[in-house]
Amino acid sequence: MSQDALVSVIIPTFNRVELLLRALDSVLRQTVPVKEIWVIDDASTHPVEQAVRALAATSGAGWICYHRMEVNAGQGACRNSGMQLVSGEWVAFLDDDDWWLSNHVEELQKAGVDGTAAVIGLAEIRPEGSARGTKTWGPTSSQMQQAARMLFFINYVLPSASMFRRGPLLALGGIDAAPELRRAEDWDLALRGMQSGWLFACTNKITVIYTEPVRLTREKRHSTYLAVMHCLARHHDYPAASLQDRRLSLCHHAVKTVLDGQALGLPRFWAPLELARQSSHGSWQAAALALLAKAIAFSPVWLAALLLRILKQQAASLDAQITAVLSPQDPQPAGAPPASANRELLTPAP
Predict the structure, then answer these.
(1) E strand or H helix at 242, and its extent?
(2) Which of 26, 68, 250, 341 can bridge 337 by disulfide, Cβ–Cβ 3.0-4.6 Å?
């Protein structure tokens, strides 16, 4: 560890020792050394502590630290605990199933100019067990020109690929670990940061490998959609996006949540559209879609099937509208510009 190191790393983990060791190894291989690594164990039943301490001993990396949560509380709570323990100027998060390329910290530090509160990196999305990525996570150059507005449509701030200045992060209150936000607390953090005036920067290189589950169950996807709905509803007055933008994004995510809930046979599966209606300041579209979803629940089978088809058509229409908003003139991620463009600043809208 260098005495001049600026970055503290927080890695939440739960019962994934082998993946955790891969993540730790990727941090130890950085071209720019980090100040410390805190592994936050979310009350695992597997021998996480022994593995971490063994790695610290064999690698000579005495700055690998371990903390165990008293109860299983989720990634958000783990990251908050880590924030109270670290001492670096910058905080970098890494999920235990992801890993960094060796230049990750170096590239993010280059982009972290004076005044910057957060640096967003680019990640290669790689299906679990695959040796090749399928797509890139991160904003495109065109999206970055309206970064604050785009953030209400899509979460381009991946925790494993991002770095935050510790002072502003703590001043914001850290991560909101409310149960309803679980799986969407990172999006909530980005929206709060943007609204508080954070200056965001973005690298132009892929420096992270993000592991995507091969099979995402409908139940897990539904819970993620539902958390996103609660996140967006909390920010229904987000000033960087127009009322029309906010209504579109709320309806889009609500319909996806409703369709999964209906397929799962959940009671009151239409509730996310009611939440969208309440959060969108009288949107007739949200109200009409909520009525349509309710009608599916209480109609005879033949009529419910017809109404469900209509709802799916509406979902396709919303998908097309979202694509039109997000689709840049240049379909490449922000890493596509020439190497001379080493960063672009993302500034919150007034």
Answers:
(1) none
(2) 341
- Helix (H) / strand (E) element for 258: namely helix 243-263
Tell me the CA distances in angstroms from 3 to 59, 157, 322, 341, one per residue in order: 18, 29, 47, 30
Please report the beta strands in the chain, taking only residues with DSSP state E, as ranges in sequence order: 7-13, 36-41, 64-68, 90-93, 99-100, 118-127, 135-137, 162-165, 200-212, 344-346
From first CA to last CA, the distance across the chain in angstroms is: 40
Count CB neighbours of 155 within 10 A.
18
More reliable by pLDDT, 141 or 163: 163
Q: How many CA atoms within 13 Å lie on the side-chain side of 83?
A: 23
Lookup: tokens for 207: 């420096």
Structural contact between residues 300 and 257, judged by C-beta atoms closer than 8 angstroms = no
pLDDT digits (tens, 9 = 90+) for 328-341: 554 445 444 332 23
From CA 29, how far away is CA 18, in angstroms rounded?
Answer: 17
* C-alpha to C-alpha distances, 333 to 46, 97, 141, 144, 212, nearest whole angstrom: 38, 23, 7, 10, 18
Q: What is the DSSP letter of 117?
A: -
Q: What does the longest C-alpha to C-alpha distance in the chain come to?
A: 70
In b/e form, how buried is each residue of 229-246, taking b as 16+ CB within 10 angstroms?
Answer: bbbbbbbbebebbeeebb
Q: In the structure encoding, which two tokens stand for residue 347, read together?
A: 């500034």
Antiparallel, parallel or unpaired: β 99-100 and 200-212? antiparallel
Q: What is the pLDDT of residue 142?
A: 81
Contact assessment for residue 108 and residue 203, using Cβ atoms and an 8 Å cutoff? yes
Is residue 249 within 8 Å of residue 152, measured between CB atoms?
yes
pTM for the full predicted model: 0.90
CA–CA gap between residue 23 and residue 160 (Å, rounded): 10
The pair of structure tokens assigned to 161 is 């690929």
Q: 170-186, pLDDT tens digit by residue?
A: 999 999 999 999 999 99
Question: What letter represents residue 257's amino acid?
Answer: T
Rounded CA separation 247/243 (Å): 6
CB 162 within 8 A of CB 118: yes
Residue 166 to residue 83: CA distance in whole angstroms = 8
Is 245 within 8 Å of 238 (Cβ atoms)? no
